[in-house]
Amino acid sequence: MPNGPAVRRRKLGAELKALRGRAGLTSGQAAGLLGWHQSKVSRIETARSGVKPGDVRRLLDAYDVRDPRLRELLVALAGTEQDGEHRRWWHRYRGVLPPEYRDFISLESQATRMRTLETSVVPGLLQTPRYARAVTRASLAGVPQAQVDALVEVRLARQEVLRTKRPLELSAVIDESVLHRTIGGPEVMRGQLAALREAAALPHVVLQVLPYTSGEHIGLTGPFVIFSFPNTNDLDLVVLDHLTSSLYLERKEDLSAYADAFASLQARALSAEDSLLLLAERHDDGP
């Protein structure tokens, strides 16, 4: 990942092109300001080549972009760990993490909001260590124990985004079946249900349960994640997970469709307060 996967290059290139346009510069003029050939700017904007974080900063300076959070996001999309800076924590796991997962974690760490639908398991950011281990073992049967341990460590480390000074805003809709599926055994599920109640009480977490009584709904097509980033909707992404890969959707039509779908699911789900009551009942009754 010397310059980030294609999805990140496309997002970065499109945003840099838009910023150049707002600055009233042609690609040739921008290149001239930096002593580059015009083709370099063109390749960056069309994602035909990657770009170093230092070059992103130079472009942002040339375009007079001063917003610190927008600058941070665009530099992160270029891959700050490759610019001699402090490497991101997930870099040490690159031997066991596929590129799609590394990119997912990178985007998650920079997002300001995450909307997620889960139909089978508790969202990864809300899983307890024992629950995460049981899910990982089930989904990666036959994988060496050391790799399972590393993947569980990664899942737990990801949860730090909910505990920072500016935590990720998490809106999660989970199917009621998730509360009834006994993963890891009754004791593990009791601990997981208790953890969900604690998470649901956090001011930056909205957890809603989609009850069995909701009947058929658009979420039957499967789980998804929507990432939103500071200052611009143009960098929002939808992520669909498959068994061996992830699909990133970035077209405005796709983003609009999934945003509407999530809003529909939230409307059909129990309120956050009623969901918390259901969690308490489920925990007290025992899995």
Automatic annotation (TrEMBL):
Highest taxon above the source species: Bacteria
Stretches assigned to the HTH cro/C1-type domain: 16-70
PROSITE patterns referenced in this protein's UniProt entry, alphabetically: HTH_CROC1
CDD domains: HTH_XRE (cd00093)
Coiled-coil features, chain-numbered ranges: none
Signal peptide: none
One Pfam family recorded for the sequence: HTH_31
GO MF assignments: DNA binding
Residue ranges of the TM segments: none
UniProt name for this protein: Transcriptional regulator
Organism: Streptomyces albidoflavus
